[in-house]
Design brief:
mainly alpha; 61% helix; elongated; binds zinc ion
Length: 115
């Protein structure tokens, strides 16, 4: 059976690599997903639009903020909402969101004090 043969192979490979089979499988899925996104995005970053070099560090990037969605888990897992970005572009976007959240939080506190 192909399944058992495959399990034996990933089992041997995980022993050689020194990581568990699940992690090995996740690494393969992640690499395939990144390769696919690079292809459909023509190697362009979803945030800045610039070329992503082959050795560029990249992140899966949720284009709409899943943590502000009514259903965060569904928004997080929505593959139509995921693009590939330079790691720095994604982190920059995350930092901006954090600044926005802190500003909003300060505004809410200020409003509570004044009312
Ligand atoms: Zn970028």
């Amino acid at each position: 059976m192909a399944g058992k043969k495959s399990n034996r192979w990933t089992g041997s490979c995980s022993k050689i690599a020194g990581i568990d089979k699940r992690s090995l499988s996740q690494k393969i899925h992640k690499a395939l997903a990144k390769k696919f996104l690079r292809m459909i995005q023509h190697n362009r970053c979803a945030r800045c639009g610039k070329f992503m070099a082959k050795d560029a560090e990249t992140h899966f990037d949720h284009m709409t903020d899943w943590d502000r969605d009514d259903n965060p888990l569904q928004a997080y897992l929505n593959i139509d909402n995921i693009r590939l970005s330079h790691a720095e572009c994604n982190l920059h976007h995350g930092r901006l969101k954090a600044v926005e959240r802190r500003a909003l939080s300060r505004q809410v506190k200020a409003n509570k004090k004044s009312s």
